[in-house]
Amino acid sequence: MAERDVRPVRETKSSSAVRTRAREDGELPGVWVAYGTLLGHLRKRADLNQQALGQAIGYSLEQVASVEQGRRPAKEAFTEAAERVLDARGVLEVLQPDVDRAKLPRFFRNFAAVEAEVLSRFSYDPLLVPGLLQTEAYARAVFAGHCPPFSEEIVDQHTEARLSRQKLLTRDPLAELSFIIGEEALRNPVGGPELMRGQWEQLLEVGELRNVEVQVMPAGTGFHVGLDGPFVLIETRELRRLGYVEAQEIGCIVSEPADVSAFASRYGKLRSQALNTRESARLIEQLVGET
Predict the structure, then answer these.
(1) Number of structural domains found in the chain
(2) Pairing mode of beta strands 241-247, 231-235
(3) Which domain holds residue 267?
(4) What whole-number percentage of the chain has pLDDT above 90?
(5) Are residues 96 and 172 in the same domain?
(6) Can you give the residue ranges of the DUF5753 domain (predicted)?
(7) Which of 57, 91, 127, 215 is deepest in the core (most CB within 10 A)?
(8) Cα 214 to chain center, whole Å?
(9) What pLDDT score does 203 carry?
(10) What is the pLDDT of residues 24-37, one digit of tens each?
(11) pLDDT tens digits for 40-86?
């Protein structure tokens, strides 16, 4: 990835910056507009109107019009059907990852683009199940609780984008993935007991993947280096290591070698202090059995 793609993304906490970000998030993402323009061109080349295309791919006239105008992002199923009907030869499909990433909160998009190409990704999440491991119901509950409230459409878009990121778990070539999750995150009943049961079961299932390790940092262990907060450590295809930290919708990619080295040292300590993968699975199984 080019250097410009991994420069640190820093946001200030000033009220003016918050207002600017809120205004920008109300704008139509450029990739949605570009996708829509290309879709319209392919449709006209095929001598179809919007209604005919909608009927051919199983979507309404309004949905096709919204996608062409860039007001609504195309879902993967929409793209697959349009590719087939319009004989698009992959020109829509190649845009789909960027269309999906544009559904994410603006502060997270740069990191999401880097994350999609990593060789390895290690993360510590003390308070919430990490997004790459969340069920749809858990992710929806998190976004539905946002303050100030999101619209239902934004909740849907952010949830879809989060689930799309989970392709990293099984993409080819496999990435090495490690997750350390605070026990508090597992015991906090986000969305209620039944929702959490499904989330625990998904953690057990994902933990069986040969490229994924899930560890739990037990509560009540006293001081450990993760108490300063969550962080992510990644290695890119260019063998470059980067960090990422996030709090209150402020995200920052960390590229300074000394800072990234400190992240690596801290993660090594956390791995040794957390329950190992078998002990972690037993704890999660215990939680499942208690519901």
Answers:
(1) 2
(2) antiparallel
(3) 105-290
(4) 89
(5) no
(6) 108-286
(7) 215
(8) 17
(9) 98
(10) 455 789 999 999 99
(11) 999 999 999 999 999 999 999 999 999 999 999 999 999 999 999 99
What average pLDDT does this structure show over 1-17? Answer: 37
Same domain, 40 and 90: yes
The pLDDT score that the predictor gives to residue 221 is: 86
Is residue 9 one of the residues assigned to a domain?
A: no
Nearest Cα neighbor of 97 from 2, 31, 6, 29 is 31
The mean pLDDT of the chain is 91
Q: pLDDT category, 15, cuts 50, 70, 90?
A: very low
My answer on whether 280 and 136 are in the same domain is yes
Look at the block and give the residue holding tokens 């879902």.
Answer: 75
pTM (two decimals): 0.84
Domain boundary among 41, 74, 100: 100
Residue 165 lies in a domain: yes
Same-domain pairing of 158 and 181: yes
φ/ψ of residue 233, rounded to 5: -125, 125
Label each residue of 65-86 as H, E or C.
Answer: HHHHCCCCCCCHHHHHHHHHHH
Query: According to the model, what pLDDT value does residue 291 have?
Result: 78
CA atoms within 13 A on the CB side of 243: 19
Q: Which two tokens stand for residue 90?
A: 């992959």
Residue 122 belongs to domain with CATH number = 3.30.870
- Helix 193-206 and helix 136-144, axial crossing angle in degrees, nearest 10: 130
Last residue of a domain, one of 61, 84, 100: 100
Q: Distance of alpha carbon 56 from its chain centroid, rounded?
A: 31
**CATH number of the CATH domain containing 37:** 1.10.260.40
Burial class (CB in 10 A: 0-12, 13-18, 19+), 86: buried
SS3 at position 244:
strand
Is 16 inside a domain boundary?
A: no
